[in-house]
Design a protein that fits this description.
It is a single chain. About 80% of the residues lie in helices and about 0% in strands. The chain has helices at about 5-30, 35-55, 60, 65-90, 100-125. Helix 1 (about 5-30) packs parallel to helix 4 and helix 4 (about 65-90) runs antiparallel to helix 5. The longest helix is centred in the first third of the chain and has 26 residues, at about 5-30. The chain is flat. It binds protoporphyrin IX containing FE (2 copies). The site of one protoporphyrin IX containing FE has 13 residues, from helix 1 and helix 2.
């Protein structure tokens, strides 16, 4: 699996959707989904692209057992967080709904993935 390319591909999809959402927010004046827009662009695009460039700049980081789990943890956690944000911000679910328990799960996936990335930097970014 080409980690850099996959991070770039997914990041590009997020920035497209994020910009369309931003453009809708600007046009309509409806800022309800602004935190969704922010995290789609920042977690989905900015971080994915930074990760892609780091894995490309330090090939040793892409060629070990830490890169793939980082990719999947970051992408699954981000997707889950964005779905959760949408459901809460659009009031599709109430703030006391059990679905809210998904938030720390999503955060945890992203944070564990980032810990693997940090460990990989420490070990292999030479
Ligand atoms: C076509 C491109 C974009 C459009 C039309 C757009 C539009 C908007 C609009 C209308 C808002 C709400 C502003 C407000 O109510 O004060 C906003 C907020 C925001 N945007 Fe964008 N945006 C775009 C791209 C981006 C990108 C590329 C990023 C980050 C990489 C970004 C990050 C943010 C952040 C962090 C906020 C603040 C959210 C908040 O206050 O809750 N936006 N954007
Ligand atoms: C595990 C990952 C993350 C979690 C769980 C998280 C959670 C949150 C929460 C709960 C807020 C307050 C939202 C509100 O009520 O207005 C927030 C705001 C914000 N976060 Fe994050 N965040 C994460 C990652 C990031 C990253 C990586 C960036 C930037 C690269 C970022 C940028 C922002 C910005 C700019 C705001 C303020 C704009 C807004 O209100 O939407 N976040 N975040």
């Amino acid at each position: 699996m080409n980690i850099s390319r996959n991070f770039l591909l997914i990041g590009s999809i997020y920035i497209l959707i994020g910009m369309i959402l931003g453009s809708y927010m600007g046009g309509s004046g409806d800022r309800t989904l602004a935190p969704l827009h922010a995290h789609m662009n920042l977690l989905g695009f900015v971080l994915s692209v930074i990760f892609a460039l780091v894995y490309r700049s330090y090939p040793a980081m892409a060629e070990n057992g830490l890169a793939r789990p980082h990719f999947w943890l970051h992408q699954s956690g981000t997707l889950l967080l964005l779905i959760f944000l949408y459901l809460v911000l659009s009031k599709t679910i109430a703030e006391d709904s059990p679905v809210v328990l998904l938030a720390p799960v999503a955060d945890g996936l992203i944070i564990i993935g980032t810990a693997l990335f940090a460990w990989n930097v420490y070990r292999n970014a030479n």
